[in-house]
Amino acid sequence: MKQLLGVINLDHELDHLNELTYFRCGAAVPFASRYRLIDFVLSNMMRAELESVGLFVRRKYRSLMDHLGDGKSWDMNRKHGGLFILPPDWNDPTDTSLGDLQHFHNNLDFFKRASAKYIVHSGSQHINTIDFQELYSYHLEKGADVTLVYKKIDHLEPEHDPCLRLEVDEDGNVLNIHHEKNHPNIYMEMLIMEKELFLEQVEYCIAHGESYFFRDAIQKRRDKLKIAAYEYTGYHAVINSVASYYKNSMKLLNHDEYTDLFHDNQVQTKIKYEAPTRYLESANVSNSLVANGCIIAGTVENSVIFRGVQIRKGARVVNSVVMQKCVIEEDAVIENVILDKDVQLSRERILVGDSKRPFVIAKSSKM
Q1: Cα 134 → chain centroid
Q2: What is the rounded distance in angstroms from the CA atom of residue 144 to the CA atom of residue 173?
Q3: C-beta separation of 20 from 338 below 8 A
Q4: Domain Nucleotidyl transferase, which positions (predicted)?
């Protein structure tokens, strides 16, 4: 859709996933046995056929750049438009911009050269299957300056505590934006607005010494803008802590949860040509997600297993997440554990965490 320009802004996403973000930004964290968190928002933009997508990153982005490459997996390796990875590069000695406004100020050419008239702005922590074309139509119908996307949550969880809330009237207009923890309307850090208005707001905020686009251009100036609210009703998960990552990983073992996320929703990721997983005679696998390229000779129960994992004979993996190319030796046992990439667990080693506070082993550890 040539009318929409995608902006994925990772500047405000802090390293809340502890060991999982020691060596990568949150958007590059593996999820659901074969994907990264960035894959879901990028796939949403791919399905809407956005001509260009700009990815704004500040730190720990080597892993993310390796994963995305030239954007081919998301059909974004094009002669015109496509995926633009825009790391920070402040070469202007007169630049006074701060926060994520620095990204926009130092990449004005990206916005001005794009033919799109509207911007879709999103982060990566809210996993969803939104239809951006439907959002665009709603925005035009409302005649708003800005349309914010929210999800009404029936049962609030700890991961919702840091999220902003939207006060919405019966006509779908935003009355207030606040942090009241008991309010159910969770702002999904996603909005759509006209590109020229976006750039005007960026320039205004920089001129007045502001730092962050949403807080200073939208939240603080809501009385000067017509702000509409779009209620999203599909699959939704917030990944902003180790606990929320683990809980939502385990939820995907439920057939209904998995279907809500992946049924009729094309989610793309980096293509890796690996052989199917081999299950040896001693293997016993139940209620688990297992990616390709694995060799399993032990027991796996209620777990998420990524590509290239080796689980030796006699080993037991229960209620755990095991990321790419881990090796679990004979008779080792893990329960309520997250193993990051390339972890090697020695023979007869036992690791047991709590279902609400899983035991996390950092990337490339040997135990």
Answers
A1: 21
A2: 9
A3: yes
A4: 17-158
Beta carbons of 29 and 36 less than 8 angstroms apart: yes
User: d(Cα 10, Cα 318) in Å, to the nearest integer?
Assistant: 33
321-322 and 304-305 strand pairing: parallel
Say if residue 131 is exposed, middle or buried (CB neighbours under 10 Å; 0-12, 13-18, 19+): middle
Mean pLDDT of the 110-128 span = 95
CATH 3.90.550.10 placement within the chain: 4-262
Topology, domain 4-262? Spore Coat Polysaccharide Biosynthesis Protein SpsA; Chain A (3.90.550)
Whole-number pLDDT of residue 160: 97
Helices 132-142, 37-47: inter-axial angle, 10-degree rounding: 60
Question: Computed from CA positions of residues 261, 32, 318, 361, in that sequence, does the dihedral angle turn out positive or negative?
Answer: negative
Full-model pTM: 0.94
Instruction: Please enumerate in sequence order all residues whose Cβ is within 8 A of that of 339, keeping only pairs 6 or more positions apart, or say none.
Output: 320, 321, 322, 323, 326, 328, 345, 361
Q: Cα dihedral angle (298, 300, 305, 310), rounded to 10 degrees?
A: -10
CATH 2.160.10.10 placement within the chain:
278-361
The span from the CA of 96 to the CA of 225, in Å, is 25
The pLDDT value given to residue 99: 84
With contact defined as beta carbons under 8 Å apart, do 119 and 197 qualify? no
Mean pLDDT of 162-188: 96
CATH 1.20.120.450 applies to domain 278-361: no
Range scoring the smallest mean pLDDT among 5-9, 273-277, 317-321, 341-345: 273-277
**Predicted confidence (pLDDT) at residue 51 exceeds the cutoff of 80:** yes
Model confidence pLDDT, tens digit, residues 267-312 = 999 988 889 999 999 999 999 999 999 999 999 999 999 999 999 9
Alpha-carbon distance of 86 to 57, in angstroms, equals 7
User: DSSP alpha helices (H): ranges in the chain?
Assistant: 37-47, 62-68, 101-106, 108-113, 132-142, 195-207, 213, 242-251, 255-262
